Amino acid sequence: MHMSKNQTKMIPQEARYGVQLDYVIFPIDFRDIRRVLAKNGYELSPVERLPPPPARISFSGEVARKAEMGVVVDSGSGEIGVVGMSLQQVKDLFEELARVINSELNISLYENVGYYWCHVHYKVDTGRTPLNEIAKVENKDYIARFSQILREDLTSFSVRLAPKNAIINQQSWFDIAIEPDILNEKLYHVGVVFRNPNRNKTETFVRNLENNLLKLIEVVEGSKT
To answer: Are 73 and 59 spatial neighbours (Cβ–Cβ below 8 Å)?
Structure first.
């Protein structure tokens, strides 16, 4: 039995959205961000005892929480963002975070940007068995040759997509993986890594992402989009 597009269940597992700031020294002080987030209704995450000013603190991890989402910072890589379950919710909270930091610290998260980033994971239930469906888009000739080498009857386990001619270790990149869920063979696991220095391109990608992922699975399963 195959579910219609309206019946397909897309179950968010984790979503991350943020920005990498292109500064030699990360511009946000650890004490300052905790102070302004507490002032604006965020719950501070526990930390070890802080050294007194003016010592700068390198930090990585969660600094505060709001509405079951975490604000995460890595001063070494220059990244700041939000982690939660829903992509739209983490993006909305990131935009609130940007307003707070700009208002309280006079630092814009939309300037001196190296790239925006987005990482998401979903489980998807279409009513079909993903391993059987993914086999439909494999290269039969290569699979036959691989099977001969390993002396096993092989099949493709995943569909993985990336932009053609792009360089992996660059600011503009995405990687979409569609595969069976490890714990439940009746579900797909879909993982996405995205980064881009252009804010408009990032927001368009995020806005269309869930619908486009469902369209990709429809292509895998041989349905019309």
So the answer is: yes
